[in-house]
Amino acid sequence: MIPSIEMCTELMDRFEMPDHIRRHSLVVESAAVFLVDAHIHAGAQLSREMVQAGALLHDIAKASCLNNGRDHAMLGGEICVENRFFEISHIVAEHVRLRDFSPGRRLSEKEIVFYADKRVSHDKIVSLDERLLDLIERYGRGREDIAERIRVNFEVARDVELKIFSGLGFTPEDLHDLLNEAGNLSSLSFSL
Question: What CATH number should be reported for the domain holding residue 23?
Answer without folding.
Answer: 1.10.3210
